[in-house]
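User: Hi! I have a protein structure encoded as tokens and I'd like to know what sequence might fold into it. I'm fairly new to this, so please keep things simple.
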């Protein structure tokens, strides 16, 4: 059961800022790749309420099931590679099969049988090393909406924060409070369900 701690900084971008960052890092079209995220929760958003998330990511024809949970200085990610058959079954309403993820969800006080598929978010992404971390430039589309985001993945929160703020200042991009993708997806889903 592979686990890792994720420490990252995020900032929403306007479309113009997105192209500014793209030019700054000399990203060309061949640097971008597309990945699909499929999100799951209970009908009452039990995972979201605990600041947790469950997704399947499809990248290069492979599927990875990931549970994200709050953890000290970042997020604890539990990753399990699953077959395309298992992924398809989950998209069509089957119950979770992965014993490790099921146990972690139970440990959170959530019934894994209540977990349902909510929808997909597609991201076109480019990545490059920057200072002591990884810069990630994303253009995401979901629920008839699109957004642009800059992420910075690091191992040292303090150094990463300084580097990220300096980069935003250099590019004259204001610091914006930014939810992660799954929270943005759920806010939009919740808005659509309640309109």
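Assistant: Happy to help. Inverse folding works backwards from shape to sequence: for each of the 195 positions I chose a residue that suits the local structure. Here it is:
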């Amino acid at each position: 059961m592979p686990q890792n701690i994720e420490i990252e900084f995020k900032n929403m971008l306007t479309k113009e800022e997105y192209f500014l960052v793209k030019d700054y890092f000399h990203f060309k079209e061949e640097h971008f790749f597309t990945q699909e995220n499929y999100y799951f929760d209970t009908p009452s958003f039990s995972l979201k309420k605990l600041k947790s998330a469950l997704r399947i990511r499809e990248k290069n024809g492979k599927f990875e099931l990931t549970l994200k949970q709050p953890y000290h200085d970042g997020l604890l990610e539990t990753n399990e590679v699953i077959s395309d058959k298992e992924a398809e079954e989950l998209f069509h309403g089957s119950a979770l099969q992965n014993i490790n993820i099921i146990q972690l969800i139970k440990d959170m006080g959530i019934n894994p049988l209540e977990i349902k598929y909510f929808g997909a978010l597609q991201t076109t992404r480019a990545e490059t090393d920057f200072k002591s971390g990884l810069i990630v430039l994303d253009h995401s589309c979901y629920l008839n909406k699109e957004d642009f985001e800059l992420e910075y993945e690091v191992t040292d929160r303090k150094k990463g924060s300084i580097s990220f703020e300096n980069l935003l200042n250099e590019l004259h991009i204001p610091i914006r409070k930014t939810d992660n993708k799954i929270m943005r997806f759920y806010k939009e889903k919740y808005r659509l369900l309640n309109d």
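A useful reference point when you look it over: The chain has six helices and eight strands. Feel free to ask if any position seems puzzling.
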